[in-house]
Amino acid sequence: MLSFSSSMYGQSGSNITVKGNVKDNNGEAIISGSVVVKGSTIGTVTDIDGNYTINTPADAILVFSYVGYKNQEIPVGGKTSINVTLAEDTELLQEVVVIGYGTVKKEDLTGAVTTVSANNLAKGMATSASDLLVGKAPGVSVVSDGGAPGAGATIRIRGGSSLSATNDPLIVIDGVPVDNSAGVKGMGNALSTINSNDIESFTVLKDASATAIYGSRASNGVIIITTKKGAIGSKPKVSYNGTFSVSTKTGEVDMMGADEFRQFVTDKYGTESDAYKALGNTKTNWQDQIFKTAFSSDHNISVGGAAGSVPYRVSLGYTNEEGILKTSSLERWTGAINLNPKFFNNMLSVQLNLKGVYNLNRFANTGAIGAAAEFDPTKPVYMPDYKDGDPGNGYYLSLKADGKTPIDIGLSNPVDALNSRHNTARVRRSVGNVQFDYKMHFLPDLRANLNLGYDISRSMEWNTIDDNSVLSWVTGKFKSGFGENENYEQSKKNYLMDFYLNYAKEINNKHRFDIMGGYSWQYFYRWDSTVYPYSLAMQKQKGAGTYQDGKSYKSENYLISFFGRFNYTFNNKYLLTLTLRNDGSSRFSKDNRWGLFPSAALAWRVSEEGFMKNQNLMSDLKIRLGYGITGQQNLPDVNGNPNNYPYLNKYMYSKPGANYFWGDEMIQLLRPNAYDKDLKWEETTTYNVGLDYGFLGNRITGTVDAYYRKTKDLLNNIFIAAGTNFSNQLLTNQGELTNKGIEFNITGHVIESKDLNWTLGYNVSYNKNEISKMLDFDNPNYKGIIHGGITGGTGNNVLIHALNQPFNSFYVYQQIYDSAGKPIEGAYVDQNKDGVIDTDDLITYKKSAPDVFMGLTSQLSYKNWDFNFALRASLGNYAYNNIQSNREAYGGSSMLDPTGFLKNRISSASYTNFSEPQYLSSYYVQNASFLRMDNISIGYTFQNVAKWLSSARIYGTVQNPFIITKYDGLDPEFNNEGIDNNIYPRPRIFMFGLNLNF
After folding, report:
1. Rounded Cα–Cα distance for residues 658 and 696 (Å)
2. Is pLDDT of 119 > 80?
């Protein structure tokens, strides 16, 4: 719609001045709207009254645009006055969002759903798929498993809903729910299957009204990944994305140097002591010895377009990544093929998705990190006067008084630990599906959808330790100088068949129905095998191929489901969604095999009401209410393997060496496991209230959500009375856990102009969890589930799941401090005032999960330049500093082992001056809140470089440039239930990138 005044005309081909006004549908002025001469850099913006003035060729075309409105192109035709009315871009609200078993228009969403599209993903800031989600979605926490090449990530949506079962979300890749239980050996997680350049969008389903369609696997949320595809009628387009990066360590544990340690030993024991005599005469920084500057590269090339009527996209990626810990590396090849043709006058749509990955991983011995923070800095890397045949292969190790025999409880030489262990893995994995969607010719509103998918993997891992190495003398079961090698194989298969019918109908432009019902079948299989071979030299010497019996594991389970969804919209204002899923899992007995998971959601599009039409401030307003029940059936056993039949009475073979002899015959024993035949689903009930908003033609958009989640019948390992089962611990259904929180996010197009554009995104989430029930019976002596083993001492644990406390609370003594704020050794609060400090005085103290986490992203562009960054903060999370607690005390065997070797101390030992270790002191539970700059990037794009090259972008990125925290350790962010010990540190990465579009 446009109007113009033509009282004056300019001569064709000459420049003229054009003036006019730009307004919206309601007659309100468009402020800072863009007016550009098409095909040029000539342009201007409208003022506060919507007026503009531009000097343009008389025969040019003007392009009028504004965020949230449709662009208009108007020929000047010599006119000197052009007034324009921009129409609201309803396609922005009608953006299609992928949900479970279908799609829905964004305006019709009734659940708590966040979509992160390719346009919002950071350009050149991440090489792994999980990194793309960091800080992008409210309520979603993504924490890397460390800085190792190919490391996975722990993803949590609205906290955890289980104590013993998994808290990982369900991941669906192009319609295939992938198997993420216990992972694939040799890979980080399911997201490692996908090259980040192939991802079109992430859709995060958070509340039960959105996730209940996935039933028994949706208690922890769902992440749906859609990959890029070709488009009908598009010409072939070739794209290349490549990066070269340099990784460096950000710091090191503050251990004593050689001179400082020598002085510390002298101050504590004197020069005539055994401790002083155990000192060496060299200076070795062991952390410098094990870390390095690493170089990596990543390449991806894709071809997309349409071959006749068949849209296609093909991509190939290669990654070569070195780790900053010496000997760690990764080579990865990824490939993807997407075909999505249509047949029979577009009545039949076919989508073929194939993805594959081939990984070659060299895992460094991360035990070297802990050893480097403890090995005596006055000792050399290599053994002086070494002779062939001496233990250690030339590396320094502690010897007994005879000077020949290794001390079998001695520390691993950090350099030997890296160089003498060769741990490599090879993984092949493929995820794919073919989906047929058919509109019935006799009733086009009715569709039938068949989805056939698979997720298969095969991995092999070799862990070889050099004979006669330091490791072979001081680690393992035998400590006899031969390498305790392990060869591991794994095969996993996941097959899927989904079928549903969908009927969608609109009546009289007021009533819109969308009804879906279907059936799902999924099969999971896993096989593992481990053998323990001698090296070839030792095989000849021992006359045997293996040093202990191997083991194998094979299991399978099925999941069968019936599901349905009913969507109803009245007058484009009032929306109702109902879903129901009935899951049957072979993991439970026939009496408890089936679980019913319903949900309901209501939404009111307030912005469509008549009383909202005569204003232009608020362009979108929707209120949502949701309720639903989801389940949990993913049960790991004590070894982390899927526990497929926990309700059955199972027998296990005895461990190697635990046999019975009948005469000369060795008989391997069987023992029964504890079991609960009445084991059933965990169930999580969620209530959600949300609000979607948009201002100024959706120049500012966002959501607010508040939720309450309660999980009952927790799958819980509890202690039981002796003689009541085959163990003193039993996996059963006892306990309840609640999560409640608030989420807020906002996206603003701060500046929208011809040359300068700036978009800011911010999200903040608050979550509080509490264990509201532990047992089904009263037991005043029951403390809770104590866990969280640490390094140091014997059997020390610092975590607890306790009643009326957050899960993974720390369980320690309350430290007493002197007037200067210094901890007093052995001084703790006597909680029960009985005059004795014992386990009855342990308290729950702080927790590892944050109260609040937030993310801030910025995308700024000026002409061809772009500048982007991502900040993230975590508040209220605490960490147990096990590095410090195990390396501060100097007395007893803490610093000088009775066998005669020394262990380095952390620099803070001089401050605390502890003689004996204080492992369970609250002093070591430290505030780990932080503000981290995840990445910062600057780039420049060259347009129309050549006829064959449409654009080229070069950029530089720094990942992990800085962090602000009060935490005393190396990094406050890690995955280990809040226990900081032996963590592979995150590197700082300097990256140069190149994007080419042909």
Report:
1. 74
2. no
